[in-house]
Amino acid sequence: EKGGYDYFMLKEIAEQPKAVADTLLGRIDASGSLTLDEVRIPASVLREVDKVVLVACGTAYHAGMIAKLAIEHWTRIPCETELASEFRYRDPILDQRTLVIAISQSGETMDTLMAVRHAREQGAKVLAICNTNGSTIPRESDAVLYTHAGPEVAVASTKAFLTQLVACYLVALYLGQVRGTKWGDEIRAVIRELSDIAAAVDTVLETMEPVRALARSLAEKNTVLFLGRHVGYPVALEGALKLKELAYMHAEGFAAGELKHGPIALIEKDLPVVVVVPSPRGRSVLHDKIVSNIQEIRARGARTIVIAEEGDEAVVPYADHLIRIPATPTLLQPLVATVPLQVFACELATARGNEVDQPRNLAKSVTVE
Ligand code: F6R
């Protein structure tokens, strides 16, 4: 049932183009608009929403961090993302005009379920983004948008994460569409680009052999750092989480702008540092700042592993290892930038002799608080 792969995780990484395409299927109509009727929250209700709160755990929380940037940009609705386990313990401000979005692959994560219950008790509307039909979180929510990743068996989340991102983009774009914002043209353009995104993920998968070789060469290291900005920051956190849970290595993700506020003291000779570089188009200021960060850490001896868009030549002189990803709209970049980090962690785990599908101390769904 592993379909010829050694591990479910490898199979599930490979299934990502299909998972992404399936999650989009039937949700973009012939005119290039989104139809999310299945969500069953009337447009009139969505137009009244004045705050969005995303709650989730672990990898799903990283999807929520990216969703915040997309929702605020395309809808101008103030939005926050919170760890589900922290949410109800801090007396959050919620009312009838708050839309809470709970993201969960399993639909059974107790921390997320408790956040959902708390939100509904306060009168907020709850939309679940979930991969498991009929599970508890969608049943207890007002509405659900299912991700169509298919069953995810490996404990470490891969294809579920990419489809959570797709679902978040759909919600963000849909909110923008029903409310009408100044980004109408951009929203239509991004919806068109989403149709090509599965092919872009496939392109990344075809070029992963050097990433595997690199991972094997780092099997004896103790620490790997990950840096990113904007949507690249949650991607950096996700890369670090994958490495912790699979390779049992010390790994940390930082917002690259924070380097100079402390973490740069960690940089020493031969320390592997993975940098997720924003597109040189789009937010080019961020791109240039990250290139300076790469220069700085390399001058201090770091071994730089740079994930950058095809055609980005500015990074070449400072990259000890360069991983290319296809150009995408800025906010969609996590769909392609995360894939090499999944492959990297999986290969490092194998090289260290770890059980890839069943990492120690972890369970696929965490049904206790
Ligand atoms: C990491 C991982 C976990 C889950 C988290 C939430 O690879 O799988 O961090 O993402 O436990 O699980 P769900 O999405 O089922 O609520």
UniProtKB/TrEMBL annotation:
A GO MF term: carbohydrate derivative binding
The transmembrane residues are none
For whether the record's keyword set contains Transferase, the answer is yes
Alphabetical GO biological process terms: carbohydrate metabolic process; fructose 6-phosphate metabolic process; protein N-linked glycosylation; UDP-N-acetylglucosamine metabolic process
What superkingdom does the record give? Bacteria
Write the Enzyme Commission number(s) for this entry.
2.6.1.16
Cellular component GO terms held in the UniProt record: cytosol
| Coiled-coil residues | none
Q: Which residues form the SIS domain?
A: 42-181, 214-359
**Which residues does UniProt mark as catalytic?**
K364 (for fru-6p isomerization activity)
Listed A to Z, the keywords are: Aminotransferase, Cytoplasm, Glutamine amidotransferase, Repeat, Transferase
Q: What class of enzyme is it?
A: transferase
Q: Which reaction does it catalyse?
A: D-fructose 6-phosphate + L-glutamine = D-glucosamine 6-phosphate + L-glutamate
Where does the record say this protein resides? Answer: Cytoplasm
Q: How does it assemble?
A: Homodimer.
Job description of the protein: Catalyzes the first step in hexosamine metabolism, converting fructose-6P into glucosamine-6P using glutamine as a nitrogen source.
| Name of protein | Glutamine--fructose-6-phosphate aminotransferase [isomerizing]
Organism (species): Streptomyces subrutilus
Gene name of this polypeptide: glmS
